[in-house]
Amino acid sequence: MDIKVISGDITKLETDAILVGHTEGESKPGGVLAQVDQALGGEISRLISDGAIKGKLNEINIINTLGRLPARRVAIVGLGKGAEINVNRLRGAIGEAFRALRRASAQKVATAITRDWGIQETDTIAQTIAEGSLLGLYTFRHHITKPPEFKEIEELLLVGPKPFQRQVAEKGLRTGKILAEATIKCRDMVNEPANVMTPTELAAKAKQVAKTYGLECTILEREDMKKLGMGGLLGVSQGSVEPPKFIILRYWGADKKQTPIGFVGKGITFDSGGISLKPSENMGDMKEDMAGGAAVICALGAIAELKLKVNITGLIPATENLPGGSAQRPGDIVKFLNGKTAEIGSTDAEGRLILADALSYARKEDISPVIDLATLTGACMVALGDLYNGAFSNHKEFLDQVVKAGELAGEKHWQLPLVEEYKEQIKSDCADMKNIGGRYGGAITAALFLSEFIEDTPWVHLDIAGPVRSDKDKGFLVKGATGIGVRTLVNLAMERAKKK
């Protein structure tokens, strides 16, 4: 969809639809909606009075103008109660509205950049509408040969009154498009089946992003991992014929003397559980186990496109976790890059093994602070459901920055404790530790395992197992991969760039 900023009178534009918002509890139209209402002879006022239009959050009403406006239809989206309107609610309402407009066969849509949306800043309004519309209209049809039953919306006009801050709006639009497109790229990668998105293909995607946006890209192969002593990554990869990859992306937006921030993403392109085999039900969803790695790759592309003044190193250990004659066994002991050892209690606790080598590599390179994203534990989803990421940290200030960045993106992070007493659960009689604890506190014991490899480097671990996918279309999310983490990482980089 092509999105443009123009100035003019939205009621004079010839389009398939005009999109306007209405706040719950308002007894009559205001702003642009009042102008549209006047042109329609008070029809919207009557519908509000009759209770047909309530303004409840995400409520959609589409009215035919019957030639009384150049636009063929008016779509009115409910914004909810005025005191509760924020960027995240607006982003979701826009996503719902654009799916409704696509179902109504609109191909050219216009909406006004005004404070009617409940947001004050011109650039924020433009950014939010861009994100909500693009993310809400996302579809994944790469392997469907039958043409879709709908036509895609081709053009969106963001209309400001004369005069207005057009350059400010265009800046917000550009940011919103970059964030949305990076998230869409991540969704595409995560939605791909595992026979397509292999570790080799994930590395190829990283190279492609690096070439497009001017990043440095290094791919470590199996022999490189052996020389470094990456026993965690090598052990997990043993059962697969697909070679493992350790992907390193570097973005230099500031003076190279400045220490880079570390973005680490889990890249298990398919997780069968290995010898500790998972149940077959829903095992196909385990293609999503590389979502953290995809988020890191796509976020770095967006950060480079925005030319943010920060330095960032992305680390993505990538492999499959499969059973086989050469697969890692429960009871095996592996040695990691930093020299520590772990007994394998379960081969299905593989994410922490590959992340241990990645975090050790970050320490070796003096990267700081470090944030990792991983679909690490079902236990985190049991604790927090599918709306919240579990957040663990050894550094409150950095954690606060991550949580704030997530809030701006509409991605929710909830802090869980790193309980020292629970380390007892991952003690081993024959190695420094074991890779799985007892039945309770599984997300915590997984994070405690990772903490052994980051030590005193400021660090946040995000367990994204719950929000990695959506089971239905809702707001700016659609069924399938959500692209979780991309916009949190970009927002974090933007905030840190402001402080340099």
What would a concise description of this structure say?
The protein has 500 residues and is an alpha/beta fold. The chain contains 14 helices and 20 strands.
If you had to describe this structure to a student in words, what would you say it looks like?
With 500 residues, this protein is α/β, with parallel strands linked by helices. It is 36% helix and 21% strand. The protein is built from 14 helices and 20 strands. The strands form four sheets. Strands 7, 8, 9, 10, 11, 14, 15, 16 and 18 form a nine-stranded mixed beta sheet that branches. Strands 1-6-5-2-4-3 form a six-stranded mixed beta sheet, sandwiched between helices. A three-stranded mixed beta sheet has the order 12-13-17. A hairpin with a 5-residue loop joins β12 and β13. The chain starts with a strand and ends with a helix.
List the helices and strands and how they pair.
Layout: E1 2-7, E2 17-24, H1 31-39, H2 43-50, E3 60-64, E4 73-81, H3 87-103, E5 108-112, H4 122-136, E6 155-160, H5 166-191, H6 199-213, E7 216-220, H7 222-228, H8 231-237, E8 245-252, E9 261-265, E10 267-271, H9 291-306, E11 311-321, E12 333-335, E13 341-343, H10 351-364, E14 370-374, H11 378-384, E15 388-393, H12 396-409, E16 412-415, E17 433-434, H13 442-454, E18 459-463, E19 469-470, E20 480-481, H14 486-498
Parallel strand pairs: 1-6, 2-4, 2-5, 5-6, 9-11, 9-14, 10-11, 13-17, 14-18, 15-16
Antiparallel strand pairs: 3-4, 7-8, 8-11, 12-13, 15-18, 19-20
Helix pairs in contact: 3-4, 4-5, 5-9, 6-9, 8-10, 9-14, 10-13, 12-14
